[in-house]
Protein: AraC family transcriptional regulator
Amino acid sequence: MAYWETADHSWTPDSSRFFNTPSQKNRDLFYVYQEMGHFKALKPYYTERSGLSSYLIKFTLSGEGSLTYQERTERITPGDVFFIDCRNYQYYKTVSEEPWEMDWIHISGGQTKAFYEEFVRTGTSVFHTQGDPWQNPLHMIMTKLLYLQDKQTTKTDFESSVLIHELLNELLIQKYQLNFQDQDIPAYILEMKDYIIDHLQEPITLELLEHKFHLNRYQLNKEFSRYIGMPPIEYQIHQRISKAKDLLRYSDLSIQEVATNVGLENFSYFSRLFKKKTGLAPSTFRKIG
Structure:
């Protein structure tokens, strides 16, 4: 798809922007930015484009804009962040009478594509953050990035890459509401986690956990996934495979005995599951260990 763009550049004199032309080496090594800035954009500010090989993150601090992307038009308000693939058609503009103030960055490299695909997995490129946008970690990270560009040294691309990765992580942490402290995890979730680890050799079902912890299976699955990162049955599978790795590498047990030891007595099923999760057959994993 050929690149094209039309735009109106109505932003205030105290707005800032930086361009970057990283070396091929740094493009291969790092997360990199092509352009970033902090804008106070006045009507009739807009950008309409397609075919740009870049991903754009834009975080709104005040004022309002709108975004048309993937055949949807959404109003963008303070605290909203959008993450788009600029190869696709996009059109965004200021819609409020006051300036649309935002942090923004065009990025590529590293696992940017994978982060983007995870962000839009729920079906939208727009997410509303909680609390004061000016105190949000997304704003803090982008402010640090802008400061770095104003103080260029030989290590700027290295430091920028770390911050871009942090920015991408923070997007997912906030979208999936993972910004909790360890003490926020309910006691029953920790008890359930310990129970699963202590009973690796036994079959565990949602029905069993439902009765043991007095929760309906929907809530149980949802809450466990939120705090532990996966549903309880999947967690048991991961723990079984991790235990199997340990036994294959550091014990003299036969592979069949390893399978039995982690509660997977069907050897064929164990072998298929192990290869699916690790990419290696149990025998191969043992040999290269």
